[in-house]
Amino acid sequence: MTWIMIKKEAREAWRSRRFLILLIVFLIFGLMNPLMAKLTPEIMKMSFGKQFSVPTPTSLDSWTQFYKNNSQIGIYLLAIIFGGTVSGEVNRGTLVNLVTKGLPRRTVIVSKWLVITAEWVLVALVSFLVTWGYTAYYFPDQKSPHLWLAFLPLLLFGCSLTALIVLASTLARNSYEGLFMVIGYTVILYLLSLFADFKHYNPLSLIDHNLTFLTKTGSLTPYWPALLVTGALGVLALLLANLKFARKQL
Q: Which residues form the signal peptide (predicted)?
C-alpha cells in the first residue's frame, strides 16, 4: 500500500510540475553560484569605478552563494510548493476513496514525506554537483576541501523541514496557513540563535556554519546536539502529523 501511495505522489508531483519547477530553480542556482562569484568583482568595478578595490574571488565565494541560495530561498520555496500537500487533498476530497478502501492513514503521511524529501534531496544534490563542477572550473584552488562535510548538515535540516511541512499542512486548512506555520518555525529558530547557549542545539546552526565545515576550521563534533535535535524534531513532526491526520475529518 505504501509503494502504491508513493507512486501516486510521485506521479502527481510530476504532472503538477512541482518537481520540474524545483529542479529548474535549483539547477539555475547551481549555474549561477560560481558565475556570480566570478562576475561580482567586475560588476563592483563597473558600478563604483576601477579605483574600487575588490578581493580576488575564490571557491569560498561560490560556495557562499550556494548556501545562501539554498538556506534563504530554496528551503522557503519547498514550503511554498508543498504547503498544501495534505490540506489541499483534504479540501478536494481526493483521499476519501483511498481511505475508505482500506488505505491506512499513516501511509498517506509517510508517503507524502518520503516523496517530498526525495525531491528535496535530488534537487539539492543536482545544485550541489553543478556548483561543484563549475566552481572547480572557475576556481581551481584548495580552499574548499570538505565539500560533503558541509553539505550533509544542509540535507539533514531539509529532511527535518519536509516533515514539519507535512505537519503544518496537516494542521492547516489551506496552503497559506501551512506556509505561515513553517515561517513561524524558522522565526523561532532565528530568535533562539540570538542566545549563545542554544548555538550548538539550534537546528539553524546546520545551515549557518556550512563554510566553517567546508574549510574545517571547525568540525561537526560540537554540533552533534543540533544534529540530534534536528533529527528528533523531524521524527516528532511526523508522529504528530500521523496523530492529527488519524483524527481529521475527510
A: none
Question: For the packed helices 59-69 and 147-171, what is the interaxial angle rounded to 10 degrees?
Answer: 10
Cell triple for residue 62?
A: 561560490
Closest by CA position to 227, among listed 246, 207, 249, 243: 207
179 contact partners, CB below 8 Å, separation of at least 6: 79, 80, 83, 168
Domain count, the chain: 1
Question: Which secondary-structure segment (H or E) carries 103?
Answer: none
- Domain coverage including residue 211: 2-246
CB pairs under 8 A, 24+ apart, for 239-246?
A: 240/167, 241/86, 241/109, 241/113, 241/163, 241/166, 241/167, 241/170, 242/105, 242/106, 242/109, 242/110, 244/167, 244/170, 244/171, 245/86, 245/105, 245/106, 245/108, 245/109, 245/170, 246/105, 246/106
Could you read off the pLDDT tens digit of each residue along the chain, which spans 250 residues?
Answer: 677 788 888 888 888 888 899 999 999 999 998 888 888 767 666 666 666 666 788 899 899 999 989 888 888 898 899 988 888 888 888 887 877 777 788 888 999 999 999 999 999 999 999 999 999 998 888 888 889 988 999 999 999 999 999 999 999 888 888 889 999 999 999 898 888 888 889 999 888 888 888 887 657 788 889 999 999 999 999 999 999 998 887 7
Q: Distance between CA 207 and CA 213 in Å, rounded?
A: 10
